Amino acid sequence: MRIGFIVNDVKTEEGKFTTSRLGHAAINRGHEVWVMGVGDLAYDPDGMIRARAKSVPKPKYGTPESYTADLQGKNAVHRRIAVDELDALMLRNLPSDDYLKRPWAATVAAEFARIAMRNGVVVLSDPNGLAIASSKMYFQLFPEEVRPKTLITRDREEIKHFANQEGKIVIKPLHGSGGASVFLVRQEDIPNLNQMIDAVSRDGFVIAQEYLPAAEQGDMRLFVMNGRPLRVKGRYAAFRRERSGGDMRSNIHAGGMKAAAEIDHTVLQIAEIVRPKLVQDGMFLVGLDIVGDKLMEINVFSPGGLGSAQQFEKVNFSAHVIEAIERKVQYMHFYGRNFDNVDICTL
């Protein structure tokens, strides 16, 4: 299998990243793996999508870190490849990372992939679905049973009114990630709410959400693949992120601590409720961030943390993701590439 991964920038990848783990697993299963940044893509005069891509010189690697070091090192294989001729292409770039500094890069991966898809390459997740999910507004398309009460606006007075109604809220940017510009607003904070709103709204719209008391214990990241919780040998690909000290953010990059997750009926019910929409939109590998009996976010772009799940569950989930992609490529071969991409994404 010839598989490609589109990332924000090859040189900023790290061995601990889920994309590196997936590339490492694919190489070790004997596949040809190419990695390219969004700025490496091109539409050529012959109508083909090509890219300046990198691969590694060895057929096997002991760790994702050694694989990534070779991918970024002097021995890396450089080639301008035809993206259309790959068997599978994973879109693993995070648009929110480019939203402010490189706005031109935020949506181009899905746009180029949509054209490459015409020639039969399996694109994961479906680029049309990803286009719909390009901001956190996508979250509001899921049933209200699994969502916290939410206001999205740039109007200060509307946010203040919502804060007074709820008593305790969280505000964050509509576009953003990693726990940046996230504020917990209590009743006593409302006199200073204008400054918080200014800090968030400088990047666009503000999301104001009811505060979920269960957030005191952090949140859970559960991976969903092909529309169902990723489960191998009875072990779920999931882990908890617990708050560190007085920081309300449980995101690992914002100082949260990792722990093992317990998957109960409530978690599985949430996954089942969101499954039809994920399947409809062709979302292959998704991260559900769950607090209590509610979803906080649905991560369809480059969900991370498979390594953390592996750490606690002692299962190489990355290899099973690659196995699932192998099956999709086989389906396309057996059926003459007659499936729509959106359907093959979750088969």
From TrEMBL:
<keyword id="KW-0547">Nucleotide-binding</keyword>
<dbReference type="GO" id="GO:0046872">
    <property type="term" value="F:metal ion binding"/>
</dbReference>
<dbReference type="InterPro" id="IPR004215">
    <property type="entry name" value="GSHS_N"/>
</dbReference>
<dbReference type="Pfam" id="PF02951">
    <property type="entry name" value="GSH-S_N"/>
</dbReference>
<keyword id="KW-0317">Glutathione biosynthesis</keyword>
<keyword id="KW-0460">Magnesium</keyword>
<dbReference type="GO" id="GO:0005737">
    <property type="term" value="C:cytoplasm"/>
</dbReference>
<keyword id="KW-0067">ATP-binding</keyword>
<dbReference type="InterPro" id="IPR013815">
    <property type="entry name" value="ATP_grasp_subdomain_1"/>
</dbReference>
<dbReference type="Pfam" id="PF02955">
    <property type="entry name" value="GSH-S_ATP"/>
</dbReference>
<dbReference type="GO" id="GO:0004363">
    <property type="term" value="F:glutathione synthase activity"/>
</dbReference>
<keyword id="KW-0464">Manganese</keyword>
<dbReference type="InterPro" id="IPR006284">
    <property type="entry name" value="Glut_synth_pro"/>
</dbReference>
<feature type="domain" description="ATP-grasp">
    <location>
        <begin position="136"/>
        <end position="326"/>
    </location>
</feature>
<dbReference type="GO" id="GO:0005524">
    <property type="term" value="F:ATP binding"/>
</dbReference>
<dbReference type="InterPro" id="IPR016185">
    <property type="entry name" value="PreATP-grasp_dom_sf"/>
</dbReference>
<dbReference type="InterPro" id="IPR011761">
    <property type="entry name" value="ATP-grasp"/>
</dbReference>
<keyword id="KW-0436">Ligase</keyword>
<comment type="similarity">
    <text>Belongs to the prokaryotic GSH synthase family.</text>
</comment>
<dbReference type="InterPro" id="IPR004218">
    <property type="entry name" value="GSHS_ATP-bd"/>
</dbReference>
<keyword id="KW-0479">Metal-binding</keyword>
<comment type="pathway">
    <text>Sulfur metabolism; glutathione biosynthesis; glutathione from L-cysteine and L-glutamate: step 2/2.</text>
</comment>
<protein>
    <recommendedName>
        <fullName>Glutathione synthetase</fullName>
        <ecNumber>6.3.2.3</ecNumber>
    </recommendedName>
</protein>
